């Protein structure tokens, strides 16, 4: 196997390992029951409303968000489309394997493990450079179309998502706050650990966005 092919294979492994681990980490946060990351508050609330599993709801919402890319003139990558399906399937699969956690002695370690694993998963799939997740692309698209800062767009969207999810029955708690303050530093740490060297000029490896410019949440 040539060097470009090995590099591409490494990036593909990172992409799908990262997305699967992201789904697994989200499942740990659900099992802990101490608060979810913003979008999963919405997913859980919609799951309570519809009776669907949280993973299926994640897939449906991700596909819906991806449709919003069309008027925003965003271009999805392999990682974007894969994100929609792999994360939700991995979340449901992990939840099916996890026992009920009732005591804080179990739930707190699940919460901490979920947040750390989420940071590692984020670093893995962003460093693979196959395109942002659908929700991150929504933020960048709104930024480009409105001229407002990415931080403002993210805050506005995620506050709306959290409030809507909470009203529908999603879980907000200490885990939501802990996730918000720790995921950026954790993702940045793991991005440096998992960074794949850029392909040399003229290589056939598919180019992607530089991980340092990525938004560090799904």
UniProtKB/TrEMBL annotation:
Pfam families: DUF6198
Protein name per the record: Integral membrane protein
Domain of life of the source: Bacteria
Record flagged with keyword Membrane: yes
Transmembrane segments annotated in the record for this chain: 12-32, 52-70, 77-98, 110-131, 152-183
Organism: Streptomyces tricolor
Keyword vocabulary terms for this entry: Membrane, Transmembrane, Transmembrane helix
